[in-house]
Amino acid sequence: MSATVRLRYEAIDASPVAGSDSSGALFNVRSTLLARYQSGPVALVGELWDSRAYGDAGRPITTGEVNAAELVQAYAAVALPLAPGVKAVVRGGRFMLNIGSRRLVAADDYRNTTNGYTGVEAELTGKAGLHANLLYVLPQQRRPDDAATLDRNGVAPDREGFDLVLWGGTVAQAHAIGPVMVEASFYHLGERDMPGRPTRNRSLNTYGGRLLRDPAKGRVDAEVEGFYQSGRVRASTAPAAAVLPVSAWFVHGDVGYTLAGAWKPRLSVEVDRASGDRPGGSYGRFDTLFGMRRADLAPSGIYNAVGRANIAAAGARAEVTPSARVDAFASYHALWLAERRDAFSTTGVRDASGQAGAFAGHQLDARLRWWVRPGRLRFEADGVVLAKGSFLEAAPNAPGGGTTLYGSLNLMASF
Hints:
CATH class: Mainly Beta
Number of strands: 18
CATH topology: Porin
Radius of gyration: 21 Å
Structural class: mainly beta
Number of helices: 2
Helix content: under 10%
Pfam family, one: Alginate_exp
Shape: globular
Distance between the termini: 9 Å
Number of domains: 1
Order of helices and strands: EEEEEEEHEEEEEEEEEEHE
Strand content: over 45%
Protein name: Alginate export domain-containing protein
InterPro entries: Alginate_export_dom, Alginate_Permeability_Chnl
Largest sheet: 18 strands, antiparallel, barrel
Domain Alginate export: 2-397
């Protein structure tokens, strides 16, 4: 058995998110309790998550902050030898997933709540670095989701059902092209209305691939990943809304170099572009499904402004690991809209005329982590400065308020 408790205080000033107050602060408490029983090739696992929030975030509390007393994981797993050098681990039940780059399927760690999935997953490991994940799952829909119950940290069981289904897989081969790993992915998301909860009836096919050379001292590393999305989606949640064909895409690229110093400094340049929607008879806004954002773009939490949708970003990053107990990074990104008539990323800020321009601003992001007591107590500090560009100042529903400042202090204990 093991457990964790994470305490977080986060605050924001001049939030760039449409409909939010200029400032807000939130105290988050996230507790987990994990029980695991192993007998030969069979494992039984259960994990309880309790995520609560207190304070005034400057916007309504959501299921991103609160999901109290939820059994996020409850599954059985069995390890199966399939052939010499080839094995599979099959899980059935409720579980968390982190697959590949985690840009499509992830268990979000920075956010106060996480993503869970109910179904079946097979993880295969073969000779010479072959690895695959295949799944058919019903993503957990966090409950409660009404404002009044969330404000008082109310408890209700999450639900899953065939109104929201995700299936597909990722296959990777290490050293497929010299030192470069090659990865291919396909996922289908199927969604339909449920009683009292209209949706956009998404039916999305996401195809993609990744090339990766891992960082190492004294050499160049690189990563390129891209996805294309097709399918159909309703123009709105109204039952009679038009059904539109989907054509959307995303690409990430970075090139870095790790110096040979004791602090293992790594310097890199990186670009991200996710398509936005434009007027016409198709839908072009990329949907990142259940992907994380922290590693590439910015924190979620009450900042929650920069994600993998209608964005073009270019920047640089510096990372250091002075010791086994300390690591840090700082990054800079210039931010634009990929499509100036769509809402910018996850801010909800939009100018349907396109007259507000395409430049969203300059973002500085930094993080410091320190194991106060190795393996037991870790401190983390995060900070973001967003100097708003012309779009976030001039768009009709831009909240204004000048430069955005966000910070969080975190302390996590492990038992």
